[in-house]
Write a structure and sequence with these properties.
alpha+beta, Alpha-Beta Plaits, four-stranded antiparallel sheet, three-stranded antiparallel sheet
Length: about 700
């Protein structure tokens, strides 16, 4: 028997227990892998993988100044009392209890002002800082707990900020957003929509079960891959969200077609075979289009982008394989019991109308087809107007200042800026090597130091020679959040203007490192390859659709319509987040920038997800056209007969990604909102107006 989606569906349905047992073994193995390997296998770092300037600076710095764990300074505790000065017995006793007598190693080995270092005191002598070296997230958690206990004293305020505590808070917020957004909102909302679409509890639970299986297996594969490769912790948000969207969507298409075929009087296995030939085939091609689109992100030299791509690719592949094998097995086992536990009032109606032309959408399409030119022009004008704000898009990243105020690293950042404005845990690290013993190099470094001292964007810096004298390290704080657009602009100016001007005429090799410099390189790593990624996705998607529909015109139309929905989503993203239009209504934070990875990720994801509807709808239009040879009838029937399923599928994805948007992480607010609005546009304006009018005019 020739391998096809139809033969695969039939084989699975005829041997359901074998198929289900095989999947059960895979799920158990995935759970074991998650339990055994997940802890500590993921990172919050997002370094570029193309060896940029900041990475080279760090390599030179670490070689010239070997890290000393006892001298490492990753975080800073800020202690303040409005009642007591640092000279009082109460203040000294409080500091000793928190630091010297602590059972937390990072605190107990820290140096304090009690050892005579007055640089650790604020000008008003009501506050002090305690620099810490926190080695890992486990120690960071202990420090945070100790600080929070100390902060309960009404006479003192205590906070901590820095690299490790910021990573700890980002991880914590990521877990909170996953629980609040996906588990408490996305999952229940998806179930409600499924029950309304199918009108039966069992039919509604089957796609949800498929999504859960896909998520578990994909997470198991992800943690296995995280052992040899560095993957970001944000994959834990990506896989469940994408798994819910894809697993439910693909199952929705297959189950609805099976019920439709059974309603036409086909026998059970014949209905499964027909579903395998049509809906499963559409799932295979739309899933392939999604995976192809996500492969484009692997071209980006950024660990975050590659992690998100890996997570999406894995869950996409697993969702397709599950829809082609496990789902037919379940249908073969359940039979007509898939319609069990019907919901009163809507259960019988949804079963009887399965595959029939919907009156509401059918009326809209007939109205569009009567005036195709006007409909096309008006809908194009709306989408292009929504896309206009793209021209003002600014790229950036979220730092500590974007965290909610309840997090200790945000409180510490505010306290540090208030009492110690020139102090930071993330200074700009200017590394000078080659010719450091020459007079012109020393003079150039002095000129740079004088320039930065007079520049309000920077604080007072410190120059240190390496033990060998071959390298000079100039550490200078940048004012504010190191990830802010102001800090990024200052360091970009430093790298492109101030340093070349100061070191003109010398042969010194000057590199700029530090968090802000790393962010600049991260932005470049995402922005520079964008044209290549977009071209890759467009060309491969076009070729795939040409193969599926055997029509260059249909493939080009589908690609163009997807570009329009993506462009409109970009424009709305800028309008809401950068300009604040409606941000308060949605509960979003207004920000100066769009997260650097979001636009390119949205492009790939939206192209993949939108293709689900395009393939499913165009497949039904083609089926009808092959029967009637009437374009108007084929378009009207195709849109009307798929309306309930496509609308339900779109609403499910909107619900899932709205769960992301309900969280507090700005990056996921932007991603969730972008996907949600794009799919709403795709399922309404694109599907009911643009596509029908374009198909009518093309003939």
């Amino acid at each position: 028997m020739r391998l096809s989606t139809q033969s695969l569906a039939l084989a699975s349905a005829r041997h359901p227990w074998r198929t289900i047992s095989a999947w059960g073994a895979v799920v158990v193995a995935a759970i074991v892998a998650i339990v055994a390997l997940l802890g500590g296998s993921l990172t919050t770092e997002g370094a570029p993988t193309n060896n940029p300037e900041s990475e080279r600076a760090l390599a030179v710095q670490e070689q010239a100044f070997p890290p000393d764990p006892s001298m490492a300074r990753s975080d800073i505790v800020v202690i303040r009392s409005d009642e007591h000065t640092v000279d009082s017995a109460e203040f000294e006793s409080f500091v000793r209890a928190l630091v010297e007598q602590s059972d937390v190693q990072a605190l107990s080995r820290a140096h304090t002002y009690l050892e005579g270092d007055t640089s650790l005191l604020s000008p008003d002598r009501h506050a002090t800082i305690v620099p810490l070296g926190i080695p890992d997230e486990g120690e960071a958690e202990k420090v945070v707990e100790a600080v929070e206990r100390a902060d309960e004293d009404p006479a003192f305020s205590v906070a901590v900020t820095g690299d490790q505590t910021l990573d700890y808070d980002f991880n914590l917020l990521s877990q909170e957003d996953l629980k609040k957004g996906e588990l408490q909102f996305g999952l229940p909302a998806a179930l409600i929509i499924l029950l309304l679409v199918f009108g039966a509890v069992v039919a509604g639970l089957v796609p949800l079960l498929m999504a859960i299986v896909s998520i578990v297996v994909a997470l198991g594969l992800t943690v296995v891959l995280a052992q040899p490769f560095e993957l970001s912790v944000f994959v834990l948000n990506m896989v469940p969200g994408m798994g819910l969207a894809l697993g439910i969507d693909y199952s929705l298409f297959v189950v609805s077609r099976y019920r439709e075929e059974r309603g036409r009087g086909r026998e059970q296995h014949d209905a499964i075979a027909a579903s395998g030939l049509t809906a499963s085939r559409a799932v295979l091609f739309s899933g392939t289009a999604f995976v192809v689109a996500m492969f484009g992100m692997l071209l980006v030299p950024s660990s975050i982008m590659r992690t998100l791509a890996v997570g999406a690719i894995l869950v996409g592949i697993v969702s397709v394989v599950a829809a082609l094998t496990l789902l037919p097995a379940l249908l073969g086992l359940l039979g007509d019991r898939v319609n069990a536990l019907r919901i009163p009032f809507i259960g019988r109606r949804t079963l009887e109308s399965a595959g029939a032309e919907g009156r509401f959408w059918g009326a809209i399409v007939r109205s569009v087809l009567r005036r195709p030119v006007l409909s096309l022009v008006l809908s194009l004008a709306v989408l292009l107007a929504l896309a206009v704000p793209i021209l003002g898009m600014s790229i950036g990243t979220s730092g500590v200042s974007a965290l909610p105020d309840r997090f200790v690293s945000k409180q510490g950042f505010v306290a540090l800026a208030r009492d110690f404005s020139g102090t930071t845990t993330d200074p700009v690290e200017i590394v000078v090597s080659g010719g450091t013993s020459r007079a012109e190099t020393s003079a150039a470094l002095d000129r740079l130091r004088s320039t930065l001292t007079a520049d309000p964007r920077f604080g007072n810096g410190e120059i240190r020679p390496s033990p060998s004298g071959d390298v000079l390290l100039f550490s200078v704080p940048v004012v504010g959040d190191p990830s802010s657009s102001q800090a990024v602009a200052a360091v970009q100016d430093l790298r492109s203007e101030l340093i070349p001007r100061a070191f003109d005429g010398t042969d010194a090799d000057v590199l700029v490192g530090g968090t802000t410099s790393e962010n600049i390189d991260y932005f470049d790593s995402v922005i520079d390859p964008a044209p290549l990624v977009i071209a890759f996705v467009l060309v491969l998607t076009f070729l795939l659709l040409t193969v599926v529909f055997r029509s260059i015109v249909v493939a080009a139309t589908a690609v163009a319509l997807n570009l329009l929905s993506v462009g409109a989503a970009y424009g709305l993203l800028v309008l809401v987040f950068q300009h604040g239009v409606g941000a308060g209504i949605f509960g979003f934070q207004e920000t100066d920038t769009i997260e650097a990875w979001v636009p390119l990720f949205l492009f790939s994801v939206l192209f993949g997800l939108s293709m689900d509807y395009q393939v499913f709808l165009l497949s039904r239009i083609r089926e009808r056209y092959d029967e009637t040879r009437d374009t108007t009838d084929a378009v009207t029937f195709g849109v009307g007969s798929t309306a309930r399923i496509i609308t339900g599928a779109a609403l499910i994805i909107v619900a899932v990604f709205s769960g992301f948007a309900r969280g507090d992480l700005i990056m996921f607010q932007q991603m969730g909102f972008g996907v949600a609005v794009a799919l709403l546009i795709d399922a309404t304006i694109i599907r009911s107006v643009l596509l029908p009018s374009a198909m009518k005019l093309l003939g």
